[in-house]
């Protein structure tokens, strides 16, 4: 821990020094480059102030907040069923996964539990949104590295996943399907068989990326050893999800605290990579997509029959209390701290979104790299702007 | 640095995809890119949205009692309802006249709507339904305010509810026609 | 092209004909490349159709694009060096036009015959780097500046393997005249077998590969597109350009692609000549440009195929690749060629 604070101090000093930095031989001054808020690499409106010496980064400072929508405050004047509509829009690529921890927190406060069928369908949708989300990362990272084609494959194959989500929830991006005590509706006939077909397509997509990108020497040259995050640094900056697992830390909420979801009934493993560089982050996510496909196959075969809603009152009043529930979202740990005063609306909702913590390491990891590597590292950290600025 | 294997494999992938796009039925058949491409040529072809797709909200006016539940539950309050009470003639001879609500106004502002579906869900009298219709964009934003006549017109496009997968205990509802 | 015409033309008439000819020679391959590869092949490789509304199979899309660019507002940033800013795209396009001058299209069809044609072409084509640097410097934009500097470094680094690869051909053909190189390939023979002549792609395969890679870098196409790297530098040196000036850069980019492919086709694929066929000169004067165009498209297919498939290198990796691998390899190639030339 002490090592990190030292590094933080160094980063601060370097930041200060960058302004007056003078190269002794050439007498050059540092250049301040604003990456964003409108820049193709930030896929949204993240601004990163980068101080450069030549093409080398001396200091980097992320400035989030350009897309702040105030969901935590908005949630204080929305009833519990209405909040799921809002939280859909936090991580817009894996929106169903955003609803689950909030609903689970509310359920914990109300002391109800969803029936097993609802839990299974929740887990299915959770993993489907994970595939849909990470598939886009797998293509997007390639486009940040200059390969134009994989992103089209990603959009093409993600479409099948979105169609399946739409067929069951009615919304492609904003399902709003999770309810306190269960789900809004049951799955339509023929959906399971169709989804199995989609899983074959997604597996083919993973194999295609393996050949097109992961095996490509240019790709490995661009990503190996770039943006290495040692495990202890990753932990101390509060990274989570695949970013942390790529640094070799075997830590996954799905396995370690599977509350309300049925991961403990499945046969699967958590992928880690010892390197902690950009390649490792890409590789871990690719493996996770494969693992999600494996999980989904087991899930689709084992849906129990039964009701999908527990008995909850029509007008939901959550008893007073506090609860924090976190799940392993596609981007990392996503948690909701819900404080209730026994009202129709939550008294306070604190959203712990993964991307906000994941980009907090940007000043540390960007120091000393070249401008092209800035893009590689930002892409491999994989943030979604809605997830940074709630 | 052996540049050969991975690099060549990548070339094979892109060429293979081009083959799949241009010759979807195999190389012997004539090229048919419009069949092999995954894109849908929108104004000419259309995708079939699933029956559950949330396209536009339809109103079955006879069932609406102007209870205002939907307007109250809407997260961004984009439903506007006005109604008045009137005394309907009694059903049976000599009975009391019944008190009824008549809708004067039922507007949904689709420029504000978040398509969350809460209004459809909370409606206790089954007056609101989702239609997968999506082609109602307007050049003027004010025209996105659909009045009750327009919302009632969407009822014709509402598909029947699908049957459920095996193991479901939910009953399939009927759409009032 | 004018020398064989039956009608005697005045000098000014000849000049006009030549100018029209150069414009056609520059724009036709460029348009074909953009439509065929950038619009269609790239789309097919990405499971989509590409433009298909304007004209049959979208073939008029290019005109629509030109119309779109012409309608756009011509913006010059406040801090820009206006004179340099406006001249930069013209310099880039001009260098392309001049490159085409020495490319032979048939036995008697050329714009200018220079005894050191290949030398002239390679020298002139590198003029575009000045335009790029001008654009990057004058835009008053940090991204543009970095793009311009990267372009300068990259184009200079890859000029060397390009020239060295061409040198192998020059040694083997024994002439620097482009027409002479075509003749050497038409009449040459490989170890006594003269059935298809000697297209230098067979005997100079290493040189061809080096030329192709260096060409990819000179054209700033992926995997060597750092100067315009859209995910890093927005659009590199073109960031501040809009409307007609951007169009000029765009034309310059693909016309240069056509010009380099024409040179490569002349050096390695036998230029306008059909291998193994000895046709009448007058017929070849008409057929030659078509043959050359087909060969240009063959080479561009490879270039655009790489472009669609690969991610881009980093700046330092690019330089390492040029100086540590390509240049030594091409030097070895030259030595081997020279030794074999002396032996046989």
Tell me about this structure.
- The complex is a heterotrimer of chains A (about 400), B (about 180) and C (about 350).
- Chain A has about 400 residues and is of the alpha+beta class.
- Chain A has a single domain, classed as Orthogonal Bundle (Cytochrome-c3 Hydrogenase, chain B), CATH 1.10.645.10.
- Chain A contains 16 helices and 8 strands.
- Chain A has helices at about 1-20, 70-75, 80-85, 95-110, 115-145, 150-170, 190-215, 215-225, 230-235, 240-245, 255, 280-300, 355-360, 360-365, 370-380, 385-390; strands spanning about 30-35, 45-55, 55-65, 180, 180-185, 320-330, 330-340, 350.
- In chain A, β6 and β7 form a beta hairpin.
- In chain A, α6 (about 150-170) runs antiparallel to α7 (about 190-215) and α12 (about 280-300) runs parallel beside α15.
- By secondary structure, chain B is α+β, with helices and mostly antiparallel strands.
- The mean pLDDT of chain B is about 80.
- Chain C is about 70% helix and about 0% strand.
- Chain C has helices spanning about 10-45, 60-70, 80-100, 115-125, 130-140, 140-175, 180-185, 200-205, 205-220, 230-235, 245-270, 280-310, 315-344.
- Chain C starts with 10 loop residues before the first helix and ends with a helix.
- The mean pLDDT of chain C is about 80.
- Chain C has one domain (about 65-345).
- The interface of A and B includes residues 84, 169, 186, 221 and 308 of A.
List keywords for this structure.
heterotrimer; A: 390 residues; alpha+beta; Cytochrome-c3 Hydrogenase, chain B; three-stranded antiparallel β-sheet; 16 helices; 49% helix; B: 177 residues; two-stranded antiparallel ribbon; 5 helices; elongated
């Amino acid at each position: 821990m002490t090592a990190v604070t030292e590094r933080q101090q160094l980063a601060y000093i370097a930041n200060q020094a960058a302004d007056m930095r003078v190269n002794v031989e050439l007498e050059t001054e540092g250049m301040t480059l604003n990456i964003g808020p409108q820049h193709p690499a930030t896929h949204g409106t993240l601004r990163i102030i980068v101080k450069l010496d030549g093409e080398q980064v001396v200091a980097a400072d992320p400035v989030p907040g350009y897309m702040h929508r105030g969901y935590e405050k908005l949630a204080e004047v929305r009833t519990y069923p209405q909040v799921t509509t809002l939280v859909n829009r936090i991580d817009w690529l894996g929106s169903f996964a955003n609803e689950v921890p909030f609903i689970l927190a509310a359920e914990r406060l109300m002391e109800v539990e969803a029936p097993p069928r609802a839990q299974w369908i929740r887990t299915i949708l959770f993993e489907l949104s994970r595939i849909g989300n990470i598939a886009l990362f797998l293509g997007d990272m390639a486009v940040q590295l200059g390969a134009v084609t994989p992103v089209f494959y990603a959009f093409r194959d993600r479409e099948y996943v979105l169609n399946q989500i739409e067929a069951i929830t009615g919304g492609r991006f904003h399902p709003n399907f999770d309810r306190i005590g269960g789900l809004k509706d049951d799955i339509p006939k023929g959906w399971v068989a169709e989804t199995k077909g989609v899983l074959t397509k997604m597996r083919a997509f993973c194999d295609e990326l393996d050949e097109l990108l992961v095996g490509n020497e240019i790709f490995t040259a661009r990503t190996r050893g770039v943006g290495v995050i040692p495990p202890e640094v990753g932990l101390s900056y509060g990274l989570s999800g695949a970013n942390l697992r790529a640094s070799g830390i075997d830590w996954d909420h799905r396995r370690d605290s599977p509350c309300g979801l049925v991961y403990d009934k499945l046969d699967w493993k958590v992928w880690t990579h010892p390197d902690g560089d950009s390649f490792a982050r890409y590789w871990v996510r690719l493996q996770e997509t494969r693992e999600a496909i494996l999980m989904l196959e087991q899930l689709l075969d084992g849906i129990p029959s039964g009701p999908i809603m527990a008995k909850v009152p029509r007008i939901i009043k959550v008893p007073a209390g506090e609860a924090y529930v976190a799940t392993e979202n596609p981007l990392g740990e996503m948690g909701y701290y819900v404080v209730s005063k026994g009202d129709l609306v939550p008294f306070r909702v604190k959203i712990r979104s993964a991307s906000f913590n994941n980009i907090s390491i940007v000043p540390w990891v960007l120091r000393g790299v070249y401008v092209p590597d800035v893009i590689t590292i930002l892409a491999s950290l994989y943030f979604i702007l809605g997830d940074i600025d709630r | 640095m052996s540049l050969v294997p991975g690099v060549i494999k990548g070339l094979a992938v892109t060429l293979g995809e081009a083959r799949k796009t241009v010759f979807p039925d195999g190389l012997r058949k004539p090229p048919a890119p419009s069949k092999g491409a995954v894109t849908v040529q929108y104004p000419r072809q259309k995708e079939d949205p699933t029956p559950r797709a949330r396209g536009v909200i339809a109103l079955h006016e006879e069932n609406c009692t102007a209870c205002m539940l939907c307007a109250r539950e809407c997260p961004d309050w984009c439903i506007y309802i006005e109604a008045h009470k009137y005394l309907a003639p009694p059903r049976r001879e000599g009975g009391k006249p019944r008190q009824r609500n008549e809708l004067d106004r039922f507007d949904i502002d689709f420029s504000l709507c978040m398509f969350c579906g809460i209004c459809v869900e909370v409606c206790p009298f089954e007056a609101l339904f989702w239609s997968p219709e999506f082609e109602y964009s307007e050049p003027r934003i004010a025209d996105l305010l659909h009045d009750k006549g327009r919302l009632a017109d969407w009822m014709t496009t509402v598909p029947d509810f699908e049957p459920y997968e095996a193991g479901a205990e939910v009953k399939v509802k009927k759409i009032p026609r | 092209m004018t020398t064989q015409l039956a009608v005697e033309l005045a000098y000014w008439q000849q000049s006009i004909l030549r100018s029209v000819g150069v414009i056609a020679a520059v724009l036709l391959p460029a348009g074909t490349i953009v439509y065929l590869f950038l619009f269609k092949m790239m789309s097919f490789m990405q499971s989509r159709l590409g433009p298909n509304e304007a004209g049959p199979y979208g073939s008029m899309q290019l005109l629509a694009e030109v119309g779109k660019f012409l309608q756009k507002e011509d913006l010059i940033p406040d801090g820009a060096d206006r004179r340099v800013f406006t001249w930069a795209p013209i310099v880039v396009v001009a260098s392309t036009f001049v490159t085409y001058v020495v490319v032979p299209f048939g036995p008697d069809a050329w714009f200018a015959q220079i005894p050191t044609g290949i030398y002239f072409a390679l020298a002139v084509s590198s003029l575009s780097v000045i335009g790029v640097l001008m654009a990057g410097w004058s835009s008053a934009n940090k991204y543009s500046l970095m793009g311009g500097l990267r372009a300068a470094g990259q184009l200079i680094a890859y000029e060397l393997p390009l020239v060295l690869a061409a040198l192998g051909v020059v040694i083997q053909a024994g002439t620097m005249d482009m027409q002479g190189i075509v003749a050497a390939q038409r009449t040459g023979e490989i170890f006594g077998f003269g059935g298809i002549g000697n297209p230098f792609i067979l005997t100079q395969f290493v040189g061809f590969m080096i030329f192709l890679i260096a060409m990819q870098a000179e054209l700033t196409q992926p995997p060597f597109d750092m100067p315009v790297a859209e995910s890093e530098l927005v659009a590199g040196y073109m960031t501040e350009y809009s409307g007609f000036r951007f169009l000029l850069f765009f034309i310059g980019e693909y016309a240069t692609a056509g010009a380099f492919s024409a040179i490569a086709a002349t050096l390695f694929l036998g230029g306008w000549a059909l291998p193994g066929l000895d046709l009448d000169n007058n017929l070849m004067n008409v057929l030659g440009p078509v043959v050359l165009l087909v060969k240009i498209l063959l080479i561009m297919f490879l270039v655009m195929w790489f472009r669609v498939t690969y991610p881009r290198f980093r700046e330092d990796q690019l330089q390492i690749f040029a100086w540590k691998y390509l240049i030594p390899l091409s030097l070895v190639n030259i030595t081997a060629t020279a030794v074999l030339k002396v032996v046989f």
